[in-house]
Amino acid sequence: MTTFNIAIVGAGPSGFYAADHLLKQRDDVSIDLFDRLPTPFGLVRYGVAPDHPKIKSVTKAYSRIAKKPEVRFFGNVNIGTDITREDLEAHYHAVIYTTGAQTDRMLNIPGIDLDGSYAATEFVAWYNGHPDYRDHEFDLSVEHAYVIGVGNVALDVARILLRTQEELQATDIAQHALEALAKSNIKQVTLVGRRGPAQAAFTFAELKELGELADADFIIDPADMTLDPVSQAAVEKNKKSRQKYELMADMAQREPAGKPKQLFLKFLRSPSELGGSEDGHVSSITMERNDLIEAPDGRLRARGTGYMRTYPAGLVLRSIGYRGVAVPEIPFDDKYGILPNVAGRVGSANSPVIGHYTAGWIKRGPSGVIGTNKPDAGETVKMLSADLEAGIHLSPSAADITDLLRSRNVDFIDWNAWERLDAAEIAAGEAAGRPRIKATTIEEMLALANA
Ligand SMILES: Cc1cc2nc3c(=O)[nH]c(=O)nc-3n(C[C@H](O)[C@H](O)[C@H](O)COP(=O)(O)OP(=O)(O)OC[C@H]3O[C@@H](n4cnc5c(N)ncnc54)[C@H](O)[C@@H]3O)c2cc1C
């Protein structure tokens, strides 16, 4: 029986789900799972908020997949630099790209490049100890922070800015972020939504948490809760929206308890400009009031009313969406920031790129929760499996990728090495009364993994 060698590029949730589906659907596959970092789990390690440890427990299931005899993990191997498309084609019958969405969508307003204005992607990666972002510096000496966007990531960022040291100490937040946040002077954080409360993307549980912060009152202006008729109808029709709206309406009526910090949630506003001080640092944010208009597709869109107001601001974090980055030599859809694909087959219906597949955020864009990636990877593997049956695959000629990696002096690590690194991080955490202290440089990771 032929064994099909499959490469999966990216060891985040989608990579593990793709491996799992392959193993469940076929008994003739051997899988090599690559990640450019020595650490697996993608955004479960570097995105999910440190104060949400339960969500991270999904990694236990991923570890079980990685330990299957048909799977090998190659950490610290960057596809595109350490290994090229040509190399993959010489070693594998098929390749699945699960590289995620690694950058942010830009907000093109004057002043966006001032010091003190950052992408939430950078801030999230920094506080989660991603090696590419550990040396970033965020000026937390200011009092007023604005978070642009009202998705769950925006809420994560606002919470982390306002959590007490005691709360953060109990999480696996990176040590450098814990220390920087200990010195933070931020007193007020304002979340800003372009549209109204009925269109807010955050979920009920994340909203509820904002009302329970130890050190910060959560304040919504009751006037912001007024709904236009289309939003009213939408809220009445959809149970989840209604529950969220009712909770917000209830929260808007609460009297602040007089906690030392405040978290404001504001709707129907768009930032139009960031003002700067002489030293090039953000000092203000100008926002335009919006109203909502119904677009031809029935969705409500924000429209500026021309009414502007300027507020003091020292830190602005834009959280308006993630975006995929191109994998060298593989087609890329620059408009949507994804690999162009038809149900997971890279390319178009008329010109598929034989042997190349994609799953997860780089396939469909940054949407859904971790579990959404499971059926998504299932669809891709179904296509791949059908192609294998039909004899549509690459024809590898080279033996084992390990030889190539060694010949190029790529310092890759396997799953056992990752487990040593994992254990070392947990042990370091125990010694400091924390769940884990993350290694945050590649050198440190490799040293612990290879110890
Ligand atoms: C800030 C944030 C918080 C979130 N919180 C939650 C939450 O609380 N609950 C929830 O359900 N979902 C949450 N999500 C969503 C969840 O993280 C995603 O659905 C999921 O991680 C997407 O999986 P993925 O495998 O497609 O991408 P990723 O998780 O991004 O994994 C991609 C992997 O590919 C690797 N890679 C990239 N390029 C290369 C290359 N060239 N060579 C080799 N490897 C490469 C990366 O290092 C990474 O490990 C959150 C997302 C973000 C951004």
Overall average pLDDT: 96
Number of helices: 17
Record the strand order, biggest sheet: 3-2-1-4-18-17-16
| CATH homologous superfamily assignment of the largest domain | FAD/NAD(P)-binding domain
* Low-confidence region ranges: none
* Helix content percent band: 25-40%
Bound molecules: flavin-adenine dinucleotide
Number of domains: 2
At the first level of CATH, what is the class of the largest domain? Alpha Beta
**Which percent range describes the beta-strand content?**
15-25%
Q: How many individual β-strands?
A: 18
Please write out the topology.
Layout: E1 4-9, H1 13-25, E2 29-35, H2 43-46, H3 53-56, H4 59-66, E3 71-75, H5 85-91, E4 94-97, E5 103-104, E6 117-119, H6 120-127, E7 144-148, H7 152-162, H8 165-169, H9 175-182, E8 188-192, H10 204-210, E9 216-220, H11 229-237, H12 239-253, E10 261-266, E11 269-276, E12 282-294, E13 300-312, E14 315-318, E15 322-323, E16 341-342, E17 345-347, E18 352-358, H13 361-364, H14 373-389, H15 401-407, H16 415-431, H17 442-449
Parallel strand pairs: 1-2, 1-4, 2-3, 4-18, 6-14, 7-8, 7-14, 8-10, 9-10
Antiparallel strand pairs: 5-15, 11-12, 12-13, 16-17, 17-18
Helix pairs in contact: 1-14, 11-12, 16-17
This protein binds flavin-adenine dinucleotide.
Walkthrough of the structure:
The longest helix has 17 residues, at 373-389. The chain has 451 residues and is of the alpha/beta class. The two termini are 39 Å apart. β11 and β12 (282-294) form a beta hairpin. The protein has 17 helices and 18 strands. The model has no long low-confidence stretch (mean pLDDT 96). The chain has a 7-stranded mixed β-sheet, sandwiched between helices. A 6-stranded parallel β-sheet has the order 6-14-7-8-10-9. Helices cover 34% and strands 22% of the residues. It has 2 domains: 4-102 and 324-412, NAD(P)-binding Rossmann-like Domain (Rossmann fold, 3-Layer(aba) Sandwich); 105-321, FAD/NAD(P)-binding domain. It binds flavin-adenine dinucleotide (FAD). Flavin-adenine dinucleotide binds at residues 9-15, 34-37, 42-44, 47-48, 52, 55, 78-80, 98-100, 102, 124, 153, 156, 322, 327, 360-361, 368-370, 373.
